[in-house]
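Checklist before submission:
- one chain only
- standard amino acids only
- sequence pasted in full

Submission:
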Amino acid sequence: MFKNMMEWQVIEEPETAAGEIYDAFGDRYDFTGSEKEVLRLYLLFGFEDKEIAKIMQSTVQELEGRFRCMLGKTRTNSMRELQALFIRFVLQKLPANLSAEACGTKG
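Returned file contents:
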């Protein structure tokens, strides 16, 4: 979707496992398409506000508005809380045997 906006390409890959997880999380909280994209750029790539605004061809103020909507929809108070919520969501989606192996235990 976005190419050559930064020093490397930022490509939307909705058919990958990561893309499916971001979509599922966004659908769970009724995010708009642009809110899902902001989430992906923020969490997956770690872009800062100015970088995300540039990639999405919007202003930082518009981006902050999207952040407020995302926080309201998820009932979180900060982007850090939103990140934690997303991580918990991902961990719940892992197969039971995979999450047990990651913890050093076997079912």
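Reviewer check: The CA atoms of residues 1 and 64 lie 22 Å apart.
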